[in-house]
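We store chain and fold; example below:
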Amino acid sequence: MATENDLPVSLVDVGQKLVGHSKTAEFTARHGLVVELFPFIIEASERMSARAISRFLQEEQQMKLSQVTITRALNDPQKNWLSYFAGFEKEAITLAKWAKSRSFNYLFLSKAEFDSKMSFEQKGVVERAVSRGAVALLRPDCVAAINVLRAKWFSIGLATRLKAKPYLERHLIELADKF
């Protein structure tokens, strides 16, 4: 059996050289990129292969996301939908609590329906406008939550969000049971 000294190259030396090189090389790690793009990857995968998606991201957006990483994400939608949702879960809970609803059904409304229900700028019945204005002043957390959900969730097409529903349903029920 060979001892550490018998190895032609010390593995410690190799490891230290690797770390040294990583500090001088171009930064390529994009932790979380696949999670942030997951809903869009799902939608694009209906018409494009993982290789084509990877190539587009590299050539058109200068983002390195390998075909293998994309394929792994597509093969584990449960994990990736939950990871994506975790990025704005707090805001989703804030709105559900504000609406005094134990349901997250609003997540699966069309963008127009959501905007109609949540818009503080909406004109209409005076009482509704006044109450929404009061909420905007008294509950800035709700206004912030709505803005985050518009940007992160309602920027995804309804058909794609509906594909997420079976993967998120159990988690949403567990969240609703906590409040």
User: Anything to note?
Assistant: The chain has two domains: 27-75, 87-177. The chain has a mean pLDDT of 83. The first helix runs from residue 11 to 24.
